[in-house]
Structure formats: C-alpha cells, structure tokens
C-alpha cells in the first residue's frame, strides 16, 4: 500500500494510534477516487463547552488538489462518527468535481463566425 501525505492534528485531546489508523483507513477511500490529491489535513477537536453536556467531537478536513481546495467539517458526540461524516462529505465533493469536469469536457459549443464569407465566382 502506498503511503499517503496525511497530516493529522488534535486540539484539546491526545491523538492515539487508533485515531490515526481510523483516519488513514477512511482517507484511503478518497485517494482511490482521485489521483491528483496533493495532501490531506485532518484536525480533530474536542469541545467540552458545547450545547450538549457531554461535549462534542469536531473533525475538520482539508483536501489540497489542483484548483480550489475542499474543506469539510462534522461535529457529533462520537469521534469516529465525526471522522466518518467528514470523509463522506469530502468524498461527495470529489465526486461532484469529477462529474463537472466530464460535463464540461463533453459540452462543446459550435463556433459562430458572424462575418459573411464571399462567394467564389
């Protein structure tokens, strides 16, 4: 398996090997869909002062690709669900980007020359 460039950081929590492995496992699906991903940044955050009394886990992801980067975040009370939701949002963005590239490539416009072409005598 090829080593991918994934940067993982944690705020207000300690990153364990299990969290890193889950992020790498889920992100591998994104790298299979798109070959031109330069780098992926994942930020995992714990907010103890959220609206719920138990706290909230927030997963933020950034995909660096040619053109505009893709950003997604998900917040739930379960860390692994937040990571899964964030990856599925980024996957939908990549699929949409790929679909739009195909549509633009197939949509050809006829060339309209407004000048009159003289008739040969």
Largest sheet: 4 strands, mixed
Q: Show unreliable segments.
A: none
Radius of gyration: 22 Å
Secondary-structure element series: EHEEEH
Proportion of helical residues: 25-40%
CATH fold group: Double Stranded RNA Binding Domain
The computed structural class is alpha+beta
What is the terminal separation in angstroms?
A: 70 Å
Strand content: 25-35%
| Major β-sheet strand ordering | 1-2-3-4
CATH superfamily: Ribosome hibernation promotion factor-like
In total, how many beta strands?
A: 4
Instruction: Tell me the name of the CATH class.
Output: Alpha Beta
CATH architecture: 2-Layer Sandwich
The overall pLDDT average reads 83
Show the helix and strand layout.
Layout: E1 6-11, H1 17-33, E2 37-47, E3 56-65, E4 70-76, H2 79-106
Parallel strand pairs: 1-2
Antiparallel strand pairs: 2-3, 3-4
Question: What is shown here, in short?
Answer:
This protein is 37% helix and 28% strand. It is an alpha+beta fold and 121 residues long. It has a single domain, classed as Ribosome hibernation promotion factor-like (Double Stranded RNA Binding Domain), CATH 3.30.160.100.
Describe the protein's architecture and organization.
This protein is an alpha+beta fold. The chain has one domain (6-96): Ribosome hibernation promotion factor-like (Double Stranded RNA Binding Domain, 2-Layer Sandwich), CATH 3.30.160.100. The protein has helices at 17-33, 79-106; strands at residues 6-11, 37-47, 56-65, 70-76. The protein has a four-stranded mixed beta sheet with strand order 1-2-3-4, covered by helices on one side. α1 (17-33) packs parallel to α2. The N and C termini lie far apart (70 Å). The mean pLDDT is 83.
